[in-house]
Amino acid sequence: MATTLDFEQMLRGAALRVTRPRLAVLGAVFAHPHADTDAIIGAVRADLPEVSHQAVYDCLHALTAAGLVRRIQPSGSTARYESRVGDNHHHMVCRSCGLIADVDCAVGEAPCLTASDDSGFVIDEAEVVYWGLCPACSTGGDA
Ligand SMILES: [Zn+2]
Ligand SMILES: [Zn+2]
Questions:
Q1: What is the Å distance from ligand 2's center to 89 Cα?
Q2: Which sequence spans correspond to the domains of the chain?
Q3: Of 93, 107, 117, 120, whose CA is between 20 and 30 Å from 32?
């Protein structure tokens, strides 16, 4: 489990000024993988009740731009954020409840799919979303 000290070092390592909102947002993304902005605002406000929506958006933007968090947005979903960066992993999304789970990269490095025709592009990433039903939804349970 990452500590505040780890988060401070991550911010410094990315040449970002260490601020309480940035620490709180980083902590919330680590604690709640694939959370959307509303969930992150809720988690941050547990620590910093006075923080504004705009401040959280600004932090998420700065952290994403610095590569400390990754933004994903499956079609039909709001943007989600996660702390697992740099490994080109993919996602499974439940069509019914929207649950998101990580899937390791198929071959361990990007791009993990070879295009059938690259049209002359130099391809550095393949983003794959696996759609289906999560265990709770596929068994018909209402859990
Ligand atoms: Zn589901
Ligand atoms: Zn993920």
A1: 7
A2: 4-72, 87-143
A3: 107
